[in-house]
């Protein structure tokens, strides 16, 4: 995240036309530029005080092959402006959408939305559209293709009483059962395959202390699905 005063509107100057700005302070808080302003005046026979906080963030942007404008944010990207094309698939590393991302996209007829984008993000953006189009909200990853090697491991793996498939040494969860209410992945399991939970639904999933997902590369992180169809994930820091 890059922040610079030159990207900011002068809110203090704008507000002076309405009330007296008695204090205007700019600082960096949690990596963001924050401006705090105190204003006061006598209005309609009353003494009025206003306190205004403006938070500013500036991000590097890039354009993809379709012409979409994307901002680089922590752990992924944000769709700033969708391309004015008939069909667009939002890249899977996008998990935020700017409010005006689809404004003026008059040619758009069909849109794929990746599973990491929550309902709040997409709903707010769609409210700004000038026309309606088909929206496909994906609950899991776009790509669900397992390698031949992995399919072979699944076929030869250990299957527990719930239908979960593990590697022969039982250190890797290869494939989950299609539907389970609550499940405890056994202690000793160190890895969960990226697509192990593809098209599988659960209400409560417990991860053993031997699974240190926070240490895994982002591309190896399991696809547990969208919050629309999945329950709670409980990572344990100590053995069950």
Q: Which features would summarize this protein structure in a list?
A:
240 residues, mainly beta, four-stranded mixed β-sheet, 17 strands
Describe how the helices and strands are arranged.
Elements: H1 11-15, E1 20-29, E2 32-43, E3 46-56, E4 61-63, E5 69-73, E6 76-81, E7 87-89, E8 94-97, E9 110-113, H2 119-126, E10 134-137, H3 148-156, E11 158-159, E12 165-166, E13 172-175, E14 179-184, E15 191-192, E16 201-207, E17 232-235
Parallel strand pairs: 6-8, 7-9, 9-10, 13-15, 14-16, 16-17
Antiparallel strand pairs: 1-2, 2-3, 4-5, 5-6, 11-12, 12-13
What does this protein structure show overall?
The two termini are 39 Å apart. Strand 9, helix 2 and strand 10 form a beta-alpha-beta unit. The N terminus is likely disordered. This protein is mainly β and 240 residues long. The protein is 9% helix and 37% strand. The chain has a four-stranded mixed sheet. A four-stranded mixed sheet has the order 11-12-13-15, with helices on one face. The protein has a three-stranded antiparallel sheet with strand order 1-2-3.
């Amino acid at each position: 995240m890059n922040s610079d005063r030159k990207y900011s509107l002068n809110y203090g100057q704008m507000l002076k036309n309405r009330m007296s700005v008695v204090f205007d302070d700019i600082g960096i808080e949690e990596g963001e530029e924050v401006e705090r302003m105190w204003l006061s005046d006598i209005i309609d026979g009353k003494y009025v005080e206003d306190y205004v906080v403006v938070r500013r963030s500036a991000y590097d942007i890039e354009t993809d092959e379709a012409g979409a404008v994307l901002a680089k944010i922590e752990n992924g990207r944000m769709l700033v402006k969708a391309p004015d094309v008939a069909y667009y698939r939002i890249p899977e590393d996008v998990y935020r959408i700017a409010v005006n991302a689809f404004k003026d996209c008059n040619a758009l007829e069909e849109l794929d939305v990746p599973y990491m984008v929550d309902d709040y993000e997409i709903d707010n953006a769609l409210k700004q559209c000038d026309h309606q189009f088909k929206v496909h909200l994906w609950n899991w990853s776009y790509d669900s293709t397992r390698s031949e090697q992995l399919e072979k491991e699944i076929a030869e793996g250990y299957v527990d009483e719930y239908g979960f498939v593990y590697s022969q040494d039982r250190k890797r969860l290869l494939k989950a059962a299609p539907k389970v209410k609550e499940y405890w992945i056994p202690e000793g399991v160190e890895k969960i395959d990226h697509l192990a939970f593809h098209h599988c639904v659960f209400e409560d999933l417990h991860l053993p202390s031997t699974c240190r997902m926070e240490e895994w590369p982002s591309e190896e992180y399991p696809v547990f699905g969208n919050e629309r169809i999945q329950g709670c994930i409980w990572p344990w820091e100590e053995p069950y």
